[in-house]
Amino acid sequence: MSTYEDRLKLLRDELATRALDGFVVPLTDEHMSEYVGAYAQRLAWLTGFQGSAGAAVVLPADAAIFTDGRYTLQVREQVDGAHWSYQAVPETSITRWLAEHALAGGRIGYDPWLHTRDWVVQATAALAARGAELVAVDGNPVDAVWADRPAPSDARLVVHSDAHAGRTSADKRQAIADWLVTKGADATVLAALDSIAWTLNIRGADVDHTPVALAYAVVSADGTADLFVAPEKMADDVAQHLGNAVRVHPRDAFADHLRSLGGQRIAVDPAQSVAAIFAELEAGGAQVMEARDPTVIPRACKNAGEIAGQRAAQARDGAAVTRFLHWLSIEAPKGGLTELSAAAKLEAFRREDARLIDLSFDSISGAGPNGAICHYKVDEASNRPIEIDSLYLIDSGGQYRDGTTDITRTVAVGEPTAEMRDRFTRVLKGHIALARAVFPEGTSGGQLDVLARQYLWAAGLDYPHGTGHGVGSFLAVHEGPQRISAAWSSQSGGAEPLREGMILSNEPGYYKAGEYGIRIENLLLVERRMIPGAEGAMLAFETLTFAPIDRTLVDLELLDAGERAWLDGYHAQVRDVVGPLIDGAAKYWLDAVTAPLG
Q1: Is beta strand 364-367 parallel, antiparallel or unpaired with respect to 390-396?
Q2: What is the largest CA-CA distance in the chain?
Q3: Secondary structure letter of residue 35 according to DSSP
Q4: 202-203 and 407-413 strand pairing
Q5: Average pLDDT for consecutive 10-residue bins of the chain (598 residues)?
Q6: Which residues contact residue 444 at a Cβ distance below 8 angstroms, ignoring those fewer than 6 apart?
């Protein structure tokens, strides 16, 4: 259809034919993924919103789109306020909004393959108070009106080597089997795509920038597994790798298999499994036991092989970013660069490494005011020139077989203002405070979040996103359950204890709407720290990311002696790690911009 208004009308007409008085459109897929394949981009198709978190509700006369603080500016630029009302989360929620706006006695539809059972329970209760009903649809009505909807990817599975994985699939499946025995369960359903990829040591290409395949798995207490994946995705080497202990079925046989498990006790993660999985198991007579996906913590706590790979990938990636920053320092002052051309050049530097498989996400390339949009996604329509006397923010990463990277640098093009330098230095002070943190075992990311915000808070400032997210090993660039976030709910990850081997980002920022954005991001590895006389186990962070931090944006008067020492020490590490991987003018530039502070 030619406009988003047309698409909204088509959906409303479809709902009317189904005797529905509304429908909920989440931004997820059947696996509760954050990033989804093109076939599942229903929210973007319907509204134009390109962010990675959000949802919408369509009623006969009202339509609302729900986003959090990261997308306050972006949603208003991409979604027409004449047809959609903007709803801020967590100030409101879909269920609260429905309780106020759904028609009394109305029927609100939802796709049971796109929502958790907990959400269904909450929404049912909220609508009941309104005298309305939540109705599971058979076939998504958005799909019915999306005429040119892409087909799911048919990319083939690939083997993720034991050397990169650090453990064999057989070892991982046996660990899950042992866990099932302790729980008194017969099997567990793995619905999260990264859980399946990690468990079976396979990777795919079904989601942009995330090397996973559309599949489901059921792992049994005897260490065997059933994998449900489209047959065309299988190759001989993958079949040989999986072996006889992994039975392969067509993906569309998954629901029937769940119904065949009657009489068995099946563990299901309520946070990562959609309502339809529970419904199919219960319809077949299985006893469902709610339990966290047993791969979540082992996947988050990287083993020695994964850590070694991550260090190697970070070094190569840091060299690519450093070459880019050197190039930018020469070309940006000349004028003529744009957000798109700069992002393309950084990708070109990364692709000089033949081991790069993909970017880890669409680069956030924000010039001037676009840098103030936290999760900005540049396109031809929004593309801005990188202007003199402005700030440029580039948040980017790569997917390598030995690691996943994510780094943000903010640079001054020309002369920064005193305010820019003040804000940048406050962000840097928070970044340093978190990087230097030492904390007792059992500490959560939520308890550390204030370290990164304190210097902004002292000036009456803040930023509208978490300080850190987990990162996978040649998997999702956003990986749970660990986070460094002010949000303390169990679902947000802010309350999750940090454990040795976890990798998280350290990315405080500051955003002045309409003017500029600042973010400094490195990845951190949680490590055990030996302290003489300590009365308990202590943890700390090892910085994994190495590329110069723009010192022209640092107000040295705001740094204390310890912070100056950290910055000098960090830049010495950058020279040691990245220096041997670059040469020529870029090497001379690196030595100059990382020299000790005067």
Answers
A1: antiparallel
A2: 72
A3: S
A4: unpaired
A5: 86 97 96 93 95 93 92 89 93 93 95 97 94 96 96 96 97 98 98 98 96 98 98 96 97 98 98 97 98 98 98 98 98 97 98 97 97 92 96 98 98 98 98 98 96 98 96 96 76 78 98 97 97 93 98 98 98 98 98 94
A6: 488, 494, 495, 496, 497, 498
Query: Beta strand 22-26 with 107-110: parallel, antiparallel or unpaired?
Result: parallel
- Which tokens belong to 365? 């390339």
User: Which tokens go with 214?
Assistant: 């559309």
CATH of 158-293, one of 3.30.1490.20, 3.40.350.10, 2.170.120.20, 3.20.20.80: 3.40.350.10
Compute how many other C-beta atoms are within 10 angstroms of the C-beta atom of residue 11.
Answer: 22
SS3 per residue for 147-196:
CCCCCCCCCCCEECCHHHHCCCHHHHHHHHHHHHHHHCCCEEEECCHHHH
pTM for the model stands at 0.94
Q: HSE-up of 467 (CA within 13 Å, CB side)?
A: 30
Distances from the Cα of 361 to the Cαs of 51, 291, 414, 533, 586, in angstroms? 12, 30, 28, 44, 26
Superfamily of domain 301-588: Creatinase/methionine aminopeptidase superfamily (3.90.230.10)
Tokens of 540: 């700390």
Q: Which CATH architecture has domain 4-145?
A: 3-Layer(aba) Sandwich (3.40)
Q: CA-CA distance, 71 to 74, in Å (whole number)?
A: 5
Is the separation of the CB atoms in 262 and 281 below 8 Å?
no
Report in angstroms the alpha-carbon separations of 486 from 68, 275, 444, 511: 14, 29, 10, 18
The single-letter code of the amino acid at 43 is L
